[in-house]
Design a protein that fits this description.
By secondary structure, the protein is an alpha/beta fold. 36% of the residues lie in helices and 29% in strands. The chain has a 6-stranded mixed beta sheet with strand order 6-7-8-3-9-10, with helices on both faces. The chain has a 4-stranded antiparallel beta sheet with strand order 2-1-4-5, covered by helices on one side. A 4-stranded antiparallel beta sheet has the order 12-13-11-14, sandwiched between helices. A hairpin with a 2-residue loop joins β12 and β13. α4 runs antiparallel to α5. 37% of the residues are buried. The structure holds adenosine-5'-triphosphate. The site of adenosine-5'-triphosphate (ATP) has 14 residues, from β2 and α1.
Length: 301
């Protein structure tokens, strides 16, 4: 488990990360989203022990990370601006990581390099941006660590590669309980892979929730109400309405509550027509953050 308590980092008067409290459980995918400059990289760099927090603490499985080799062997960090040794080939990097990470899976490294069509003997500085990302991801998953920190890792990967990387993560999660932590400014990118999402804004966590919990507790209802009935009347049947949109007679309501509760209330209201539709992660975030007074569209899209 990774635990941040009051984690804070300042740079020359800028509070990049502001008293963050977060818990990241093993075996799930934690997505960290937020606009440019929200503090995602600074947070991950503290989790990875690259930066020392100014206040608060960050622990991995109970161990402080900064200058702690034992804690650092528990994760692989793919930074936004990836570092490779000068003139190194993927094979050189693999030989280095094999020493650092005792569980490094060399056979898998060769096999993945081949299936990604990458030449392991070519200098990495001659690779494209996306190819460099692929090398980092391959080294990251082969390192055999419990945690994998990815800072904008999907950026620069083409759609086929993104899918390939997502499925590798999924199989590693199933087979060896890998915990990926993925920072991105793109909510859509994380939708199909994350179990838990933390929304970072101006250095603080605005919202941190399990996706399943979010999805089960919020729904969209499209309906045509009977003559004379208004959406507000539905509240008398126990419906908690977060948002109402109307096009002609068709209403689209965003409502809170579990599905059976919503269905029960709608049946009691007896509209001419209704159907419940699941919300996308984007729509859920818009609704959840509007409730706490933010216009999330300005924050992440
Ligand atoms: N080394 C540094 N020195 C000074 N300021 C810094 C440093 N690193 C980050 N910052 C500042 O901290 C804030 C958060 O930056 P950070 O890189 O963590 O954001 P981010 O959410 O990862 O953004 P992006 O999506 O653009 O990568 C920004 O205001 C940035 O200018």
């Amino acid at each position: 488990m990774i635990e941040a308590v009051n984690l804070t980092k300042r740079f020359d008067g800028i509070t990049a990360v502001d008293h963050i409290n977060a818990t990241i459980r093993e075996g799930s995918v934690f997505g960290l989203i937020g606009t440019n400059g929200a503090g995602k990289s600074t947070f991950i760099r503290m989790v990875a022990g690259v930066l020392r927090p100014d206040e608060g603490s960050i622990t991995i499985d109970g161990m402080n990370v900064f200058e702690n080799e034992e804690a650092k062997r528990k994760f692989f960090y793919i930074s936004d601006d990836q570092h490779f040794f000068a003139n190194a080939t993927p094979l050189d990097m693999m030989r280095y990581y094999r020493i650092v990470y005792p569980n490094f899976d060399e056979a898998r490294f060769h096999s993945l390099m081949k299936s990604f069509g990458l030449n392991e003997k070519r200098k990495i500085n001659t690779f494209s941006k996306g190819m460099k990302k692929q090398v980092s991801v391959i080294c990251g998953v082969c390192a055999g660590t419990e945690y994998l920190f990815c800072d904008e890792t999907f950026d620069g990967l083409d759609p086929v590669m993104r899918q390939a990387v997502k499925s590798i993560f999924a199989s590693d999660m199933e087979e060896r309980n890998l915990t990926p932590i993925i920072a991105s400014h793109n909510l859509r990118e994380l939708e199909d892979i994350c179990d838990h999402v933390g929304l970072l804004h101006k250095g603080g966590i605005l919202l941190s929730k399990d996706l399943d919990e979010m999805k089960m507790n919020i729904h969209k209802v499209q309906c045509v109400l009977r003559e004379g009935m208004k959406p507000a009347d539905l509240q008398n049947f126990g419906l908690e309405i977060l948002k109402t949109e109307q096009r002609g007679k068709l209403m689209t309501l965003t409502v809170r509550g579990d599905l059976s509760h919503v269905e029960f209330a709608m049946q009691k209201a007896d509209p001419i027509f209704y159907e419940t539709i699941p919300l996308s992660l984007e729509e859920i975030f818009i609704s959840e953050t509007e409730v706490v007074g933010y216009d999330v569209k300005k924050l992440i899209f």
